């Protein structure tokens, strides 16, 4: 694991900011393709990171997982289908490859942000499933929670220990970092489990997890339940049953929701004309996209973009 001092942390986030500016025309920036920075884990203070990013993070996705805690400050955050304010004592998590964006209302924020790659746990003695199966990283769960002062102080202590450990040296550093991240995740799991969250009563299933992963990687070219069922070696009816049981929506609704979520991000955060939005989502004919969008939302893409909701959602 590469030792990262504060100056190197800031350099990494400056590179993030440069990539956000350079590839703004993508609409949704895939950092795994646009910015290749190798690190197992990096924990930084928000008071250092937010100014580096000029208080703005456009829609992006990457393989790294993220946990962030705002001790003080304010802003707006969007993760997948969820749009919510971030303020004092707000904890939020971003699963791998989850679409997200942020607007900070001020550069004066306090807290911590952690990015880590699951391969960190391959390099230590801890198995990957310690991370992959954590409830907080399931896309069906509300990705944020507001903490009381006791919970906030406990969380800050864990982050601070992790931040200090990151500056240390020695052969056991990798193992120690992995253990401290696991401690953080276990505490976050308890916080999320004890909160009254949207989706908290839904359960996980290996097939559902595989379906969600396939959907993330194939939504632009595969839009039928039959195609996903074939990849999972299941009958379409059985796949629909499992998805409905564990997610509350059937497979077709999940596929449609994925496309609508992506299209709203593009309509909200890019200057793409409708034809370009349609092309990004795998529609050969923009009229087909407009028909699909209207059927799912009740609005045309143009009407959605021109509505008051558009301005509120464009974060």
Q: How is this structure best described in words?
A:
It contains 15 helices and ten strands. The two termini are 34 Å apart. Helix content is 50%, strand content 16%. Helix 9 (225-231) crosses helix 10. The chain is globular and about 55 Å long. It has 315 residues and is α+β, with helices and mostly antiparallel strands. A five-stranded mixed sheet has the order 1-3-8-5-6. A five-stranded antiparallel sheet has the order 2-9-4-7-10. The chain folds into two domains: 6-194, Regulatory protein AraC (Jelly Rolls, Sandwich), CATH 2.60.120.280; 206-313, Arc Repressor Mutant, subunit A, CATH 1.10.10. Residues 310-315 have low confidence and may be disordered.
List keywords for this structure.
15 helices; globular; single chain; alpha+beta; Arc Repressor Mutant, subunit A; 315 residues; 5-stranded antiparallel β-sheet; 2 domains; Jelly Rolls; disordered C terminus
CATH superfamily of the largest domain: Regulatory protein AraC
Q: Please state how the strands of the largest beta sheet are arranged side by side.
A: 1-3-8-5-6
Give the rounded overall mean pLDDT.
Answer: 87
Shape descriptor = globular
Strand content: 15-25%
Quick gist of this model?
The protein is of the alpha+beta class and 315 residues long. The protein has 15 helices and ten strands.
